[in-house]
Amino acid sequence: MSKLPNVTTSIFTVMSKMATEYNAINLSQGFPNFPVDERLTDIVARLAKENVHQYTPMAGYPPLMNQISKLIQSSYNRIIHPELELLVTAGATQGIFTTILALVKENDEVIILDPSYDSYESPVLLCKAKPVRVPLNNDYTPNWETIEKSCSDKTRMIIINNPHNPTGKILTETDFLQLNILLEKYPDIIVLSDEVYEYITFEEKHISAHTKSFLIDRCVMVSSFGKSFHITGWKIGYTIAPEYLMKEIKKVHQFLVFSVNSISQFAISEYLDVVDVNLLGKFYQEKRDYFQKLLQNSRFELKPCEGTYFQVASYANISNEDDVTFCKKLITDHGVAAIPISTFYSDHKDQKLIRFCFAKDNFTLESAAKKLCEI
Ligand code: PMP
Ligand code: GLN
Questions:
Q1: Neighbours of 80 (CB within 10 A)
Q2: What would the pLDDT profile of 229-239 be if each residue is shown by its tens digit?
Q3: Does residue 12 have its Cβ closer than 6 Å to ligand 2?
Q4: Which end of the chain has fewer CB atoms at under 10 Å, N or C?
Q5: Which atom of ligand 2 is nearest to 339's Cα?
Q6: Residue 268: enclosing H or E segment and its boundaries?
Q7: Helix (H, G, I), strand (E, B) or coil at 158
Q8: Residue 355 · residue 312 · CB < 8 Å
Q9: For residue 59, which of 94, 19, 86, 78 has the smallest C-alpha distance?
Q10: Phi/psi of residue 134, nearest 5 degrees
């Protein structure tokens, strides 16, 4: 009997595979297609010949852990204790899975805000706990009233994703105020804050869970170097949690992964001395603006995008088909791959919305837009 009977191949895999099969321009799965910073590839090339190929300590290569601590301090003015509160993970996916496995027990409830990224529900189910999927408002802001109504003594965790995949929405000070009020009413609830796009925000600044004192003792924060350094295939990220939670997270980590691949830890540790993460927002804002301009005369209606490298678009003016069918035809008939938004909802509600990834070189964006404008 399957432990995850309703889980099928992820939509990102399905769409990317189809894009390859039909030789379509792949704006579906979120990954950049431009070259990685040469300073980083040069570091890796040099390191490959050095003594960097054996296990690092379980929680991470200590110089990298110090570098991450410095990054947190410079980004958010928060001082963490790397040896107690930090774990280097094989991507944010592993950080999320390990955190849920370590902290959620049978019959606990975990609040997941829909539309939601696909990594949250399965680990909850594997813990024999209950995912409680709560819809965001129509403008993708959290509905704190509904969230509160969904909380009970059984609620163990609320998962927030900020900036938000797929909608590009970011949380505001008011949201954190509401979250604080809620957490005061439910002292046993902890927060899992997925901030993999923390450095990719545009007009408004990202507000990290790191900056909220009420969250320091009860929040696990996950991030990904894959997103920040355009290296999604390296699968490396980090998780930060208060010591009492991190102790439990490390217990699972040491049997799930033990330690993350060494050379990428050495390389990123050096790279953090030269890279400026604060340039990322501007870089992707230019991509977003360019992509939006290219699609200006198309029949797609573009939704607001405050962060991440995803653009949600409505095709209601083009077709009445459901979004999965529409995305498949977009590949087969028009040569562009996108992600149907219904797959981010537990009830797969079709709203005629699709997600494009604009983390692509300008030629790719131009070629895709040309095709999209012809529809
Ligand atoms: N969370 C969100 C919201 C994501 O979009 C992704 C996709 N990369 C992840 C987590 C997983 O990150 P990683 O590739 O580092 O595992
Ligand atoms: N985070 C990526 C996205 O949203 C997908 C990563 C994956 O395929 N697991 O497109």
A1: 21
A2: 999 999 999 99
A3: yes
A4: N
A5: 10
A6: helix 262-271
A7: strand
A8: yes
A9: 86
A10: -115, 125
Mutate to test the pocket of ligand 1, among 224, 228, 312, 339 (most ligand atoms within 8 A of CB): 224
Where does the pLDDT of residue 261 fall: very low under 50, low under 70, confident under 90, or very high at 90 and above? very high
115 touches ligand 2 (CB under 6 Å)? no
Cis peptide bond prior to 163, omega within 30° of 0:
yes
What is the pLDDT at residue 32?
A: 97
Quickly state the pLDDT bin for 375 (edges 50, 70, 90).
Answer: very high
Please report the pLDDT score of residue 332 as a whole number: 97
Task: Return the residue whose CA atom lies nearest to atom 3 of ligand 2.
Answer: 30
Sheet of strand 130-135: strand arrangement = 86-89, 237-240, 219-224, 190-194, 155-161, 109-114, 130-135
What burial letters (b/e) apply to 305-325, b meaning 16+ CB within 10 Å?
A: bbbbbbbbbbbeebeeeebbe
Among protein residues, the one whose CA lies closest to atom 4 of ligand 2: 30
Over the range 127-152, which residues count as b (16 or more CB within 10 Å of their CB) and which as e? bebbbbbbbbeeebbbbbeebeebbe
**Ligand number with the minimum distance to the CA of 196:** 1
**What is the model's pTM?**
0.97
pLDDT tens digits, one per residue of 9-39: 999 999 999 999 999 999 999 999 999 999 9
Q: Are 257 and 123 in contact (CB under 8 A)?
A: no
Q: What is the mean pLDDT of residues 199-228?
A: 98
Q: Which ligand is nearest to the CA of 237?
A: 1
Q: Which residues, judged by CB distance below 6 Å to any ligand atom, belong to the binding site of ligand 1?
A: 30, 91-93, 117, 119, 161, 165, 194, 196, 224, 226, 232, 235, 237
63 burial (CB, 10 Å; 0-12 / 13-18 / 19+) is: middle
The ligand placed nearest to the CA atom of residue 120 is 1
